[in-house]
Amino acid sequence: MTSELISRIVTFLVFVVVQALVLNHIHLYGVATPLIYVYFVLLFRRNHPKWAILLWSFFLGLCIDVFSNTPGVAAASMTLIALFQPYILEAFIPRDSEDNLKPGMATLGISKFITYTVIMVFLYTLAFFSLEAFNFFNWMQWLLCIGSSTLLTVVLILVIENLRRQ
After folding, report:
1. pLDDT at 47 over 90
2. Strand partners, 147
3. CA distances (Å), 148 to each of 31, 153, 162, in order?
4. Considering just the CA atoms, what is the radius of gyration of the chain in Å?
5. Please, are residues 124 and 82 in contact by the beta-carbon 8 Å criterion?
6. Whether the Cβ atoms of residue 125 and residue 145 lie closer than 8 Å to each other
7. What is the pLDDT of residues 121-147, one digit of tens each?
8. From residue 32, how far is each of 58, 112, 148 by CA, in Å?
């Protein structure tokens, strides 16, 4: 086993445990829930195989579903953003950069990384809360959940990225 695989497995387990034991119990004002495990998908390297990104993301979503009692919602949403991740990342990477580039504030730059993070987290929360609600009867609550969870998750990801960078 390579060190990158071991690191990915440890990161996977940490995100599942932190989300299941701590973050699933935080609902700021009844609408904002931190969904920090989305950061796992953001960290895949530039030329990582697309099938591997899909599998890792699906299994992470499945583990979150098991502990969060959201049958299939997180797995479907994680698989969706894993499908888009290589293409969205490619839009923010300079053409002359290395093939094995790992996304982060140091490699993409602060503004590009923030934009990349906001897009990916917004796509995830849009899919997650749309599947969870499965109707648009209470559309103001739906919009509040998407906006506030996106904001809270992006702030947490940026804090973690900043701490990881130092």
Report:
1. no
2. none
3. 7, 8, 21
4. 15
5. no
6. yes
7. 999 999 999 998 877 788 888 899 999
8. 23, 25, 5
